[in-house]
Input
Amino acid sequence: MGRPSRTPVFPNRRLTSAEALAAAVYGQPGSGARFDWGLTGAAELGRVCAALVVVDVLSFTTTVDVAVGRGMRVHPFPWGEQAAEYALRVGAVAAVSRRRVTADHPWSLSPAALGSAPMVADLVLPSPNGSAISAAASATGLPVVAACLRNSRAVGRWLRHQGYGASNAPIGVIASGERWPDGSLRPSVEDQLGAASVLDALSGVPGGLSVEAAMALAALASTPDVPAAVRGSVSGRELTESGFAEDVEVAVRVGVSDVVPVLRNGVFSAA
Output
């Protein structure tokens, strides 16, 4: 199967001694479950963890959960026009942005729309955050799992059953976050809560939680109504005010899915 062109990959150059020392700290050593943000955080944890979990609640990993639950295979791909070209190469259908959906092409990043779209065997699903991180992480050869609020408990159970979570087989949980107009990372409420939901399911792993993971989990513990928090967040309001409130409602259904999408050979399918 061809690999996506221009897919961002985690840097594998030789580190300087100062960078190696910093990387040893940034990897949150000694813990069984670790937490970080965005592509850079995924790259750091990808160096030292045995498995990675990518969380992009609004909406990539929620859409992956819906698609894989219907039996589709999902190809992550960075956001851009090359997704259609890649889909042609691998014999898949390319999802489009929510606003470009038509009766003839109903497949998009919208989990609500995808839930009722005609079945396809293979779907290329581009997004600027969760999909780009997943596509880059696939180059590590590590198990990469797509998690959201819907399936966080199932993901945690599966990882523990597979033996991950000891200090010598740590799990890296990545909150994808959103983007500011200048392209920089914007940490987001929904992804912090989604990642914390996975960490909650991992809280009893033998290696314990890193400080960063424990602080993320503390945010979940102090949130009495997770769906309301996601609806009221910047990302939730943005989708709602753009006419996609149903996508938010699909995403905030906590614990309704037992699907565990695992990235193998560049494609998400059910574990």
